[in-house]
Amino acid sequence: MSNAFRDQLLKAGLADAKKVKKVKKEKHQQKTQAGKHAVLSNDASSLAQQAKAEQVARDKELNRQKQAELAQKAIAAQVKQMIETNAITSKGELGFNFVDGKLVKKLYVSNKLHDELSRGLVAIARQAEQYQVIPAQVAEKIMQRDASSIVLLNTKQQQPDEDDPYADYQIPDDLMW
Length: 177
Hints:
With 177 residues, the protein is of the alpha+beta class. The chain folds into 2 domains: 1-85; 87-152, no CATH class. The protein contains 4 helices and 5 strands. Helix 2 runs antiparallel to helix 4.
């Protein structure tokens, strides 16, 4: 109530001083409480929204990491199965040397496999701590999924150029060092 209107009601006898004070006090309390609650509710709601947004972002990141781990495990399982099903088991007495990282390894194979390894028809794949000989087509499919599983895949030799001066001097495939 405005002061002029309040004074007029008091003079006319339509309102008494106690009622005017009570109304004034109630209005003051409503204003102060509304102001406090508005500020508190805005701060609390903004903090709650911010916390919820951060939680959603963390959940998305964790979900993405879990999906990546599952995809990695699925690829590893596919590679393992491809190596196991296509492994060529032909032990021989002829040693074939190859490089795995910084180490030189030796795998004993037959004469036919030695020739195919050197020509790039078969490849050597690592499975756990063992080495398996697999066909080159399977090795190429494995390389698309996980290139670190293939230890050796020689490229097929191309025909020499016609103007190559050393074309008449062929390097023997069975050359041992």
